[in-house]
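wait is this the right file?? whatever heres the structure
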């Protein structure tokens, strides 16, 4: 089973170690569990849509924004996992077509771990 992709799958990497893209000193790293304040600029139409969606779901705007951001990362991880599974399925089907039988468990494990290429 491939490792799950979470917040660590998309780390922020500055252009220069210890400096922001504009060359300013980076703030001290925070713990993953820390809550930070973030100033965000949105078009009015997007803000209104978020406000409507939050009210429709019974959430605050902050909760709605966080829920949507987290869902976007889960969706990407699910897409990547689905693509990997599809590639493995194609490899198994190709093996079966070429050899007239299903591959062994050892072959399948090597294929999934990327050693069969």
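ok assuming it is, sequence goes like this
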């Amino acid at each position: 089973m491939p490792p799950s992709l979470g917040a660590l799958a998309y780390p922020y990497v500055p252009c220069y170690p210890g400096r922001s893209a504009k060359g300013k000193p980076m703030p001290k790293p925070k713990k993953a569990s820390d809550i930070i304040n973030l100033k965000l600029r949105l078009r009015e139409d997007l803000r209104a849509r978020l406000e409507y969606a939050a009210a429709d779901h019974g959430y605050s705007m902050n909760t709605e924004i966080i829920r949507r951001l987290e869902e976007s990362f889960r969706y990407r991880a699910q897409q990547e996992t689905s693509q990997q599974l599809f590639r493995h399925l194609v490899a198994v089907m190709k093996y079966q077509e070429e050899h007239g039988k299903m591959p062994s468990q050892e072959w399948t494990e090597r294929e999934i771990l990327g050693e069969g290429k």
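Residues 1-10 have pLDDT under 50 and may be disordered. so i think its the right one actually
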